[in-house]
Design goal:
α6 (91-99) links the parallel β4 (84-87) and β5. With 306 residues, the protein is of the alpha/beta class. The strands form three sheets. Strands 4, 5, 6, 9, 10, 11, 12, 13, 14 and 15 form a ten-stranded mixed beta sheet that branches. A three-stranded antiparallel beta sheet has the order 1-3-2. It has a two-stranded antiparallel sheet with strand order 7-8. It has 15 helices and 15 strands.
């Protein structure tokens, strides 16, 4: 059976939507076939692509021997993801991973970086705080991982705002006022940079309007340290980091920080140790001491892929 030439005249690869149209099924069914290893497919930067010759052979009932299926190319991704927590930096999460004895390593280099590492099988959990029109995180996860077994649970809500070096004069109360001071930014993959874009746009501004210092800081604590040591005078950070370094803080938004958890790992000992610890009074006390956290919704499921 040949693929109609009108689908992808300019490409040797078909998209999930094109495969669904060809088979006359919903895209969800295509994802199910992929998950079961029943259709030849390749992953490119987290996306699914279907080679035309292999699909023709598959549809004709032949074995596509030259290119393995998902089950053949990615058993380590499915069964043996490393016990790593990637994604956005959070001081409370970093502490809990250690204190709980979970055995989960932290590689917290930005929410968008966490999505990439999740897509390439490099973690079992990723911390996210990505602003969306109707909330946080879920739309990005559903769009990119709707065909994979991920669960999004609430970690906590954090106060994010202007972290300000003391003694610079009247504290800025918004982004327009922050333009008068040397501003410390984060790396492009950080969720805080997406929040910054959102706040600037609300005030009719862009990054070009800020007095950005050279270089970026890669964690909430590093940003606060840069301001405490005088490298910069203001930045967009969380209250917990501002408190830790004796800085002033002006809240601008309450963000929801979620954990995107690989469903197979959710029930394994490392994640269970972490989750159990986070239901303890010790955890709640630490969140209160750090400041700027509301962990009353911890564990709430905001998304569970089909």
């Amino acid at each position: 059976m040949k693929i109609p030439p009108g689908l992808t005249d300019m490409s040797d690869f078909l998209t999930t939507r094109e495969i669904a149209a060809l088979l006359r099924v919903k895209e969800r069914k295509v994802y199910d076939l992929v998950a079961k290893g029943e259709i030849p497919v390749r992953r490119v930067t987290g996306k699914l692509l279907f080679a035309r010759p292999e699909i023709e052979a598959w549809m004709a009932g032949q074995a596509a021997e030259t290119v393995p299926t998902v089950a053949a190319v990615a058993p380590a991704v499915v069964a043996n993801r490393p016990a790593v927590c990637a994604g956005g930096h959070d001081p409370l999460l970093e502490w809990a991973l250690r204190q709980s004895g979970s055995g989960i390593a932290a590689f917290l280099d930005g929410a968008l970086d966490g999505l990439e590492r999740a897509a390439t099988g490099e973690c079992i959990v990723a911390g996210l705080h990505i602003p969306e029109p109707d909330g946080w995180n879920v739309g990005h996860v559903a769009e990119r991982f709707g065909h994979e077994p991920w669960v999004v649970i609430e970690w906590g809500r954090r106060k994010r705002g202007l972290v300000i070096r003391r003694g610079i004069g009247a504290n800025p109360r918004n982004m327009k006022q922050a333009r008068a001071y040397r501003f410390q930014s984060r790396q492009a993959a950080a969720g805080s940079e997406m929040v910054l874009t959102h706040l600037l746009e609300k005030e009719g501004l862009s990054r070009a309007d800020l007095n950005l210092v050279a270089g970026v800081e890669r964690s909430e604590n590093d940003l606060a340290m840069a301001i405490a040591t005088g490298r910069a005078e203001v930045g967009l950070g969380i209250e917990a980091a501002a408190r830790q370094y004796g800085l002033d803080f002006v809240p601008l938004v309450e963000e929801r920080f979620d954990l995107m958890v690989w469903r197979h790992a959710y029930f394994e000992p490392p994640m269970q140790r972490l989750l159990a610890f986070c239901h303890s009074e010790v955890f709640r006390s630490r969140a209160s001491e750090l400041g700027g956290y509301d962990v009353s919704g911890f564990g709430t499921v905001h998304y569970n892929s089909a």
